[in-house]
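Example record

The entry below shows one chain as it appears in the dataset: sequence first, then structure tokens.
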Amino acid sequence: RKQATMGCCSVSRLLMPDVSDESKRLLGHVEEFAIAMVKLFPRKVIEANNTNEGGTPDMVKTDEFDLGWKKVQDGVWEKNKTEYQTVDLGNGIKIPMTRDDDLFGQIGFKKRILLGLLSRPFFFPLKDSSFQATDQEAKELLNELHLSPGMAMPEPYNEINEFSSDEAISRFFFYGTGSCQLQCVSNTDLKDVSDLGPFVADLNLSHLKVRKGFRQYGMRLHFSSEQKLTAMYDYVSNKLLRPGNDGWEAAKFAAKSSFAMYVTAVPHLLHSHLLCSNCVIYAMIEALKPNHPVRRLLGPFTFRTTYINNSALQSLLPERSMFHRASGLKYESVKQMMEEGVKSSDIFEPFPSRNFGTELEKMSEEDRFPYMSDGIAIYNEIRAYVVAWLKRAKAEKKEGGDDGDEEGKATAEFYRIVQESTKHQKYKLPPLANSDDDSKDGGPKALVDLLAQFIFISTAYHELVGVVVDYVQKPSFVSLRIPEGKCSSDLQSYLITCCIAAFTAIRTPALMNDFPHYFGASAAPPWEKEIWGGFQEKLKALDERLKAANKCQNNGSGKRKYPFKSFEPSRLECSVSV
């Protein structure tokens, strides 16, 4: 123990950033890991953007998307060895992940060593700190560390001046990231709560164990038809609180922090990265040759994804990693939450088919729940694009005298692999059955739904659950852990959370791009460019419509009360690449 302490002290002195004495005083209250992160990470993010490390549209090239296969001659491919690792999600739930990325290869040796050292307890033991800085102190510290929004962290989507009022909480759930957790009470098993309003955001995590000094997670929030916060049920104290009750302010902080922690770990990391994007890419590599029309369709939506998934696997999931340290969870509870997250996953259920409930459907029609209305709008454009692509590919094959039997078998195998990956999840992919819709959709409906949902998750949904900078602008806004008796994040967790948020600042190719070196390029069929161009025109029109809707709040005509920018096509990346 004495050796470890001496090692930590030397690491702390070595890594202390070149900042003012006041900032050094503040950093003196946090663990060595947090100091290492703020010393190294902001500079790395800024350098990555200056050197286009996240990639550019010109890097999306037809000849580069061939992982798992080797070209023997023009149009002829044979299977090539691919290196995989197994991701253990608990209770026998295991998924494969390729170590290689089509364009970015494997994580470099230096980066692997650094990530390994950061989780080593000898150099960086887990030492929680309860020290809290004021919002102003934290702002000045972030500026000195070059970690502020617009520096290492991305620019916020929305101007949020405060995040503590009842109204701000309502905005988070009806017009922000929390909207993905909102339900109609009529769709739940809750009883005797009708007087609290028709809407609920329910997250009971009180069974998860936390480290000393932190409150357990878990809160249920109730909202009226006017989108007002009416009550909260605290799963830790087993008390129903109403506005004005003792403990109301503390309960709000616990509520938004519980949801922030959960969305970061489960809908974002587990569902979007590991279960959806990773499993589809694995099936694509195993079953589809690089010139297969389904793989050609998916190519840009897989850009840099395997590289970033491998990075997340090392930097966010292990014990003493960024997420474990920023949260208040014991590591056994991190694993338990992931296991439960697999079983509750509906990530592959087509977005418009989800049972939102009558009340939310009506609110969506009134443009007061844009998560649903905007989400369905962009999903439908994506699905139309998938249909146009598959129909054109099928027509070209038929015109060339190819019955497509070999491609059809490969497509069926691709679908089977993804379907198998959903066997432990709440929503399981249906059988790939032929139907009357096949000729209309260019392929089985189940296949079209899978491809459209994958693209929707990789672009729009990932933007919603992955971009958290709006809510981490101040320590008083939200925290990934809940210090007992406090309504603000401790400085240590706040700094690590800001570093996690900075991941999303690395610029990667946008969805609205021509990708001239991919579509119709090299040996790819010329019609690809036409289909992609039509999709881009549809996205442009949708982007203009959503931007106009987001300028119409507070006009008294039943339009949205606050802007919801997460599904504007011009803001989206082409893949899960950050």
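Notes for this example: The chain is about 45% helix and 5% strand. The CA atoms of residues 148 and 379 lie 33 Å apart.
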